[in-house]
Structure formats: structure tokens, C-alpha cells
Amino acid sequence: MARLLLTLVLSLILAAPLTQGAAAQDATEAPVSDRSATGGAQTLEDILARQRGEEVPSRARSDDPDSAGAMVGQLGSLGGASDSDVWSALRYGTADVTVSSGGAPARVLIQDRGMWWLEFREGPLTKYGGWLLLGTIIALAVFYVVRGRIRIDGKKTGRTVTRFGAVERFAHWLMAGSFILLGITGLLVLMGRQFIIPVFGHEAFSTAAIASKWIHNNVSWAFMLGLVLAFVFWVGHNIPNKTDLKWIAVGGGIFKKGVHPPAKKFNAGQKVIFWSVIILGASISASGLSLLFPFELPMFAKTFNILNDTGLPQTLGFGALPSQLAPHEEMQYAQLWHAIVSFVLMAIIIAHIYIGSVGMEGAYDAMGSGEVEEQWAREHHSLWLEELQEKGKAADPSKAATPAE
Ligand code: HEM
To answer: What is the whole-number distance in angstroms between the Cα of residue 352 and the centre of ligand 1?
Structure first.
């Protein structure tokens, strides 16, 4: 009896790890749904599993007619095709869709690969874009508290010099006014659903969204015109040179009182602003035009191809970028690029607006009246002031001090 008991206990102990292992194995394996009723096509269980984010083979219908589900009842209006056949064909773009207008893009009724775009747009794009702008504003507020307003250090002369003529100021304000409108309306279109609807309701958002879209689409032309004018007027003054290195070496004197590195008409900081506005502004304009004329100006597949040829995405670990894009994917990439680059430029421009207004005494006048205090010009653009003096466009104190013979 004792031997029998011992054998029983031993066999239980030895068998336990085996049964535990089998249970663990079962838990890790993905459940395979029974597809016999659908002839191998996906079941409701499969769809729900995919929605939970689990891996499910997407096309499971077998080509073997013998594995098809049993025919029950009369054929309906779909003939031999089942609902899931039709939906599957629509989803994978193999359905024979005919449209009377709209061309190839209109034949795409379901764009299966659009979900990641939608999720990215509503998720990380909105979140990190919003934080970038808020972070910039907070950083500038901290800078203001620590450094205060950058004052004109020397004694004011009471004399002014002309910094920007009327046409230059027109170009600046055309570009600036339109950019601010585009920024606000763009943010409303992107974030309104999440932030306006919960507070003000659907009606209010609908009105705001329709107005924003109209303003955004039409004001874009003013921005592009302003951008071209600003480029033509100021590109000559924005070519980097050796003076910029000296300016950068002392941080432009922005962080310390009484430090005034020499600069011509535009200092290195302004050159960074200028080229950011031109390059990012041009890129935003290009992607914006692509969105304004849907499906007419696809540019991403070509760009990705060129990038793939350079080998850069592969080196950076992204692998080859998709070189064949459906019309809708082109639009999705255009939207993302447009928004990402706009966020970066908006953050830069917020800093620019700060320094051009509250951040620095005397700066706003340059774009307001066009006339700046001579001492301001001496402190921030000494080489430019010397040029004006040589040309006789600014009073030259050294000559005035020379006694007349
Ligand atoms: C209320 C908004 C703005 C204010 C108060 C403002 C102010 C100024 C001022 C005072 C200057 C001349 C700086 C100097 O004399 O050295 C300037 C230049 C400039 N602004 Fe603006 N600006 C504003 C918006 C914008 C916007 C939205 C853009 C572009 C999208 C822009 C682009 C430029 C560029 C490219 C320059 C020449 C380079 C530079 O000085 O940094 N500005 N702005």
C-alpha cells in the first residue's frame, strides 16, 4: 500500500512541470479561430481580434473551392459573391469600381492604409505639435523673467535712420499677417475636434471649421506672395559671412548686458530666421498646394525615390521608404508634412515675434515706422550704420566733430 502511495506521489510530482509547460505554451499561442463556417474567410472573431491590435492573417480565403462554406438558401442579388468578398475587394482595391467623374482617386472607396495616418494626426502630431508651441512660449516667458527686455544701453541720440522702406514693410506685414491667420486657422482645423467640440459644441466647431478652411485656403496666396517679395528684397543681405561667426561666438549679446557684436543689415540670428522662413515657408507652400489641388500635385513618391537613391533612409535605419503611393497616401503624407513643418516654423516665429516686439527696445520701429533710433542701430547693426554714414544716409558724428576750416 505504502509503495502504491509513493508511486502515485512521485508520478504526480514528475508530471506537474509537464502540464504547467503545456498550459504556458497554450497561453502564449494566439487563438486560432474556427473558419470552417466561412470557408476560410475571416470571421467576426478575427475582426475583433484585429481591432484589439492582435496579428490576424488578413486574407485567409482559400482558393480551394472544396473548402468553401456550404450553400444555404437562394443566391441573393450578389450572385455567388458574399458580402465579405465584396468588402474585401473594396478594401484591397481589386473591386471593379466605375465612376463617372473624379478619375482614379474616386475609385478608391476604402483606403485601408489610412488608419495610421488618422491616428498619427489625431495623436502624436497634435500632442507634440501643441507642446512644441506651448514649450516655446513658456521658454520665452522664462527668458523674459531672467533677462528682461533688451534695452538700448547707450544714450539715445534723438536721431533716426531709415531701416526698411514702405515696400519692404508691406512685404513683411503681408507675409506676417497671412502667416498668423494661417497658423490660427490651421490649428483650429487640426485641433478643433478635440478642443472646441467638448467646450463649445458641434455647432460652434462647424462654423469655426468652415470659416477656418475658407480663410486658410484663400489667405495662403497672400503668404506665398509675401514670401517671394521678402526673398527678393532681403536675400542679398542674408548670405552668411565671417562677421556671423563673431556674432554667434558671443550669442549675439542677447544673454548679457552691454555686449554688442558688430553686424551688417542682418545679424546671424536674423539670417537663421530669414532662411527658416524661406526654406520652411517654401516647403509648407509646396505641400499646401498639393493639398489645395487634391491628387493633382503628388510629390512624395518621387521624393521618397530620390531619398532612397541617396541611401540615407536605409542608413538611418528607416529602411527603403515606400516608392509607390496610392493617390490618397500622397495626400496623407502631404498633410503630415505640411503640419509638421508648420509647427516648427510657428515655434521659430513665436520667438521672432517676441524679440521683434516686447523682447527688445527699439526693434519694433524697424517694421512699424521704418525708422530706428541711431543708437539702436549702433548697438545692433554697427557695420550697417557705418555703411549708411559712408553713403551719407545717416549723420556721421566723427565728421560733425571736425572743426570747419
Ligand atoms: C506680430 C508679428 C511680428 C512682428 C512684431 C515682427 C517684427 C519684426 C521686426 C521688428 C523685424 C525687423 C527686425 C530688424 O529691424 O532687424 C522683422 C523682420 C522680419 N520678420 Fe517679422 N514680425 C512679425 C511676424 C513675422 C512673421 C509671421 C514672419 C514670417 C512668417 C516674419 C518674418 C520676418 C523676416 C523674414 C524678417 C527679416 C529677418 C529678421 O529680421 O529676422 N515676421 N519682423
So the answer is: 6
